[in-house]
Amino acid sequence: MKALIFVTAFLFSGITVSATETKLMVRAKARDAKFIGSSLGGAYIIIRNKLDQQILAEGKTTGSTGNTDLIMKDPKMRESSITDAQTACFLAKIDIDEPTLVSIEVISPYTHRQAQAKVSTELWLIPGRDILGDGIILEIPGFIIDILKPRTHQYISLKAIKDNPFQIQADVVMMCGCVIDKGGVWNSEEIEVKGILKKDGKHIKDIKMSLTSTKLFEGDLLINTVGNYELIVYAYNERTGNTGVDKVNYVIYE
Question: 10 Å Cβ neighbour count for 144?
Fold first, then answer.
């Protein structure tokens, strides 16, 4: 009976608790490059209540990589924006009834598992106080590297390559998909790309790789023995600290 009286009194007291929609703009930006958007499959965003880990919003960034001049070339002031209406983002709409500490997790690039990085941050959301404009920008370090030659688990006849240079190839781009080229905005001459060759688990040699066309790096090596080989290709930019790696295993048979 007392409980019924309390509920009735509460309902007629005029006191109501209602959640307020609060907007939060989240973007993923490649280190030393542009934003991660639809052309690369997007970055995956997860926003959680820090207290109980409940997912409040999740989804992928969509839109363009942004304006190159605005992001990479124009001088920046304190109030400067580096996004425009087309720049990739994830807009979360979260219902909260009190200030809420949230964690934001970004996994990117979504469709390139070998290059994925996860970054996160935390902030307070205030009911009805939207965070828009450039929003919260999380930086994704690295390079996306895809080894094209040799192919994963490829079987190669020793007769076909013995005493002849064996070509290796790798496609290297920024984490937003932006291309690397000689003298370009992302200059290949600033980036070291090398192959590390292992046979039956033991290091054999390092292979220098050079740009032969836009974002394509190549190198040559001689292989004269059968075995199980592993090729590791890495990219490294000393100025930015960016690194990236891809690996393949292949077999040389008699």
Answer: 24
